Amino acid sequence: MSSSHPVPECRRSLPRLSRLERQDGRIGRVVFYLPEVDSTNRLLANLAGRRAEAGTVVVADHQTAGRGKEERVWYSAPGTGLSLSVLLRPRVSIECMSQATLMISVAVADAIEAASGVAAEIKWPNDIMAGGRKLCGILCELVTTPDGDVDHIIAGIGINVSQTPDQFPDGLRSIATSIEAEAKRAVDRQTVLSLLLDRLEHRLAQWERDGFQPIRRDWIRRSCTLGRPIIVTTPQERRSGTAIALGDDGSLSIRTEEGSIHNYIFGETCSSSVAAEKTRN
């Protein structure tokens, strides 16, 4: 698809991936599919503004302007990854919204392991890792009502499925990987997508029904952040310490060398060794 063939913005004009659409539940009852789009998050945000139903999914073979946190470019060679966005209207209070990315992270890790056997790990707050390299990034965008209540969340998910190391740009080869590279076998992208929709359905219902504790327990089990020396970066500060706990609200606690404890509800993390390597280079 080229710029001379713009993506239709009307739901009735968008092609559907009907063979993966669910008859039950909320996630994936409507799945739109596009070979190429600028951004699945942007397109789904437009649809959400026209009251698309909760659980609507937009999936693309390739994004030309995909973005991660802090407006970073998300790179994926056409036809090698999964780029999708899911419209969520969770039945939880706005005070719990910081837990959404963590819930989705657990669902994604569950799906990757079910599809491939790869023991996916979670790096706080929004990355899925394997062997110390990034498999998936998650970007959640919260939209509120004029009264300050939750209207919806756009959950953008980018998964590296079949990329080989030489398909990543030079700057990513040492830090990115794919499901197939870790599994050392072919993995079907639609199988990954189908399992992801299943796991999202399960984890969303669990979060709404049982609260954050079951999600938190499984997040901790998959964590590659806790117990390790890290650096946390926020707009206000950059602090080193050991990650010691995931709070009931989804916050990350670190202990500095001086023994002080600091809690973060948002921010970026990297291991101290990775940060040192970047400094040397």
From TrEMBL:
SUPFAM superfamilies found in the cross-reference section: Class II aaRS and biotin synthetases
Keyword Ligase part of the UniProt annotation: yes
GO molecular function, one term: biotin--[biotin carboxyl-carrier protein] ligase activity
Record keywords: Biotin, Ligase
UniProt-listed CDD domains: BPL
Enzyme class: ligase
Catalytic activity: biotin + L-lysyl-[protein] + ATP = N(6)-biotinyl-L-lysyl-[protein] + AMP + diphosphate + H(+)
Family annotation (InterPro entries): aa-tRNA-synth_II/BPL/LPL (IPR045864), Biotin_CoA_COase_ligase (IPR004408), BPL_C (IPR003142), BPL_LPL_catalytic (IPR004143)
Annotated ranges, domain BPL/LPL catalytic: 12-208
A Gene Ontology term for the protein's cellular component: cytoplasm
Record has Amino-acid biosynthesis as a keyword: no
Annotated EC: 6.3.4.15
Protein name from the UniProt record: biotin--[biotin carboxyl-carrier protein] ligase
